Every structure is written in C-alpha cells, then in structure tokens.
Amino acid sequence: MKQLLASLTAAALLAMPTMASAKPVLTIYTYESFTSEWGPGPQIETAFEATCDCDLNFVSLDSSIGILGRVQLEGASSQADIVLGLDTNLTAIARDTGLFQPHGVTAQSDNLPIAYDNDMFMPFDWGYFAFVYDKTRMATPPASLQALVEADDDLRIVIQDPRTATPGLGFLLWMKSVYGDDAADAWRALNPKIVTVTKGWWDAYSLFLEGEADMVMSYSTSPAYHQIAEGVDQYAAASFSEGHYMQIEVAAMLKNAPQPELAKKFMAFIQGPEFQGIIPTTNWMYPTQASAIPDGFDGLITPENAYLFSGEDVKNNKQAWVDEWLSAATN
To answer: Given this model, what pLDDT does residue 106 score?
Structure first.
C-alpha cells in the first residue's frame, strides 16, 4: 500500500510541471472559409500566438448565421470566448441574446465607407454583395438589378438561402432595399432564372465555376482572388446602377468568456497591422484600415450607392421578408 501511495505521489509530482506549463486556450467561433488552409485563420493563429503565450483554437461553423445559432443554443455555458464573422445585419439579434459584452477597444476603421462605432461589435472587414460572371461566357452582363430581374428566362443564376447563408441574406436585403413593397413581384420575375438555391456560399460558387450558371451571388471582391491568387482575369463583378448592398463583418466577446483577458487582447489585435494585412488576400474582403489595402484591389467595381439596413430593421423584419421570399418562390 505504501509503495502504491509512493508511486501515485511520484506520478502526481511528475505531472505538476506539465499542468503548470499548459497554455491558456482562446476559443473563437467563426465560419469554415475563415479557418480553411487558404483562409486567414492559419496565419492569424500563428501571428497571435506569437504575442500571447497561448493556444488559439478556431471552431469552424458553416456561416455567420450558424455562428449565432450555435452560441444561442449553448447559452451561458458556451466555451467560446469570441465570435468572429457575424455581420451588422445580425448585431441587433445578437445583442438581444444577452450573451455578449462590450469589448472596450477603440476601433480604428479609416477604410470603412460609413461611420460605424459599436461598443460590443468590432468591425474587421467589409465588402459589397455582387453577382460575379465569367467574361469569356458573358460579354454583356446586366447593368442593374432591374435588368437582372427582367432578363430573359434563359439567364441562369445561383443564389444562397437567406436562412442559412450570409450572402443569401444579403441578397434578400438588397432586393428589399431596391424594390421595397414590390419585392414579392420582383422575386416572382426572378424565379425562372434561378438554377438552384444553395445552403452556403461555396456550394453556389462552385456550381458557377463548373459552368452550371451564368452568374452567382457573391462579393465585388471575389474577382480579386482569381486575379491575385490564380493570375486569371476572366471573372468580374457586374456593377448595378441602383447600387449594391454592403456587408460589414464584426467580432464580439462572449459575456461568459473563459479567457476574458485574452479575448480583449485579441479584440485589440484585430485592429493591428498583422491582422488587417492578412485579411484582404485570404478572406478576400476590404480591410477596415486603408493602409492594409493590397495592390490588385484598385480594379474592382466601386458602387456609387450602397444599401445597409440597421441591425434593428433586420431584427424586426427578417422573418417577414424571408416569408415573403418563400411565398414568391412557390407561386
């Protein structure tokens, strides 16, 4: 018995240095493309871990809508310290959950086209939703959203579901911004041209790249990926005369974050040159700081008019607008 106790004591003593030296883990919920090998996640993880003496653990979810749904499901017991990848369309809904706390960091966002100052949601990149097309297959794309809606029914487009995909919600809000009370009629006119409605962005974009559609709902910055990463100049975003709907992506701290000090440090890191410099050519969005804009982004379309509903407007009307779309899609 004494030998057993001695052995257990020795084992415990041997384990103590390992336990004491274990690094704290900062857990961040984000979307899958952010953490992919070609996304910004791996570089950001390396850069932040070099400053924090910690382990950064990204948890991949399918979309910003999926991120919010996950923390709502987990509630106060969530192990997440930060959510990264919500957008301003979801901030009012997120705030009302009571699961988030002020980040305490002053945002340095000199490259945002609008003023955005929020004590709870930190902007980290932004862009415009747009329909992308292949110039080798389409010489003259629609020049307006109205032209797209009223085009011949042999035009083939792919969009995403607004209930599950951020670009899908963006397009829903874009249609509502332009058409208002006439949105249902516009959806009915557009329906014959929709090849399919996908769950996520990549499902739709891959169908487009495979030639299954003439245009795909995506971002005005998507062509920069093909130009910079692939050296291919055949893809472009159609510029619509009415204007384009904007997306601003944000990060937020959980109220019950297991590592609150590390979470605050990461929120400040978002504003730094390393994070901002990684974003444009990995997440393929505009950085919030002008100094981080890379060569190759200067040839992208620049909408003269931008739409953006407030988070409160989206919270109060999202379900009704989704129901309107669903009703139009089946009639």
So the answer is: 84
Residue 198 in tokens: 């996908």
Q: List all residues 6 or more positions away from 156 whose beta carbon is below 8 Å from its beta carbon.
A: 193, 195, 212, 213, 214, 215
* DSSP one-letter code for 87: E
Q: What is the DSSP string of 30-51?
A: EEHHHHSTTSSHHHHHHHHHHH
How distant, in Å, are the alpha carbons of 31, 111, 141 from that of 56? 15, 27, 43
> For the residues of 102-130, what is the DSSP string, one character each?
--------TT-SS----SS-EEEEEEEEE
Q: CA-to-CA distance for 113 and 290, rounded, in angstroms?
A: 11
- Average pLDDT, consecutive stretches of 10 residues, N- to C-terminus, the chain (331 residues): 40 43 92 93 98 96 90 96 96 96 88 90 97 97 98 98 95 98 98 97 96 98 96 97 97 97 97 96 96 92 95 96 95 77
| C-alpha span between 133 and 95 (Å, rounded) | 37
What pLDDT, on the 0 to 100 scale, is given for residue 6? Answer: 40
Contacts of 78 (CB under 8 A, 6+ apart): 70, 71, 99, 254, 256
Name the residue with tokens 């009703």: 327
Q: Rounded to an integer, what distance in angstroms lies between the CA atom of residue 188 and that of residue 154?
A: 15
The enclosing H or E element of 245 equals strand 244-254
Tokens (6 digits) for 108: 């340095």
Find, among 128, 140, 210, 133, the residue nearest to 171 by Cα.
128
Rounded CA separation 183/175 (Å)? 6
pLDDT attached to residue 3: 41
| Cα torsion through 183, 184, 185, 189, rounded to 10 | 100
The tokens 């706390």 sit on which residue? 101
Record the pTM: 0.89
Q: What is the pLDDT of residue 217?
A: 98
> Which DSSP symbol is given to 310?
-
Q: Answer positive or negative: Cα dihedral of 128, 129, 135, 139.
A: negative
**Per-residue pLDDT at 16:** 42
